Amino acid sequence: xxxxxxxxxxxxxxxxxxxxQHQSFVQFALSFDPRTDTMANNFxxxxxxxxxxxxxxxxxxxxxxxxxxxxxxxxxxEDTYFIEAINQSxxxxxxxxxxxxxxxxx
Length: 106
Fold this sequence. Notes:
Elements: H1 22-29, H2 58-72, H3 80-101
């Protein structure tokens, strides 16, 4: 069964895994398609040698996770650096999605 593609502007908080587990990571990372995503042309690339931060955009973090998945797909062992980076990415994505639905205080 193919993994459904989720455009960045339409994905929801509940679609973000809580922590790294191989199967859920692969499904989430591959739900992004850089060829068709409406926001894929509008981001700053996150270098793979650093973790994402709050300053990074949601689209940049999705590209980052997609890139990690492609790298991990070529290796049989799980890299602890990437697992930490994935968990940090999930945390920031969740925070950003929560912030995007909270009303602004006046």
